[in-house]
Hints:
mainly alpha
Amino acid sequence: MTGFRDAVHHLAMPASQQVEYLRSIGTAPSADELALEFDDVKHLCPDDPAAMTLSERIDALLEAMSGPGPVWHTDSLATSAQWAEVRTLAADLLHLLG
Length: 98
């Protein structure tokens, strides 16, 4: 579950920390790595109804954001309401996971 928790943690970080993380792994100014990491490990979500619901909500929101557009630039991490919602859901999921 470490990979799952790490991906959720990256989604829950404040926008400035997300940008720094993306720079550190060499994908900035693209923000899509945050979604790709989650997509790679979402199947590892614990078999807990509340966790699964939050995971599915995060996945649905990221899916709704998919496609080309400014939302996938690191600048949008601090300004997009969609990214703010992703962070909130991810923080809730992290809290639930303990």
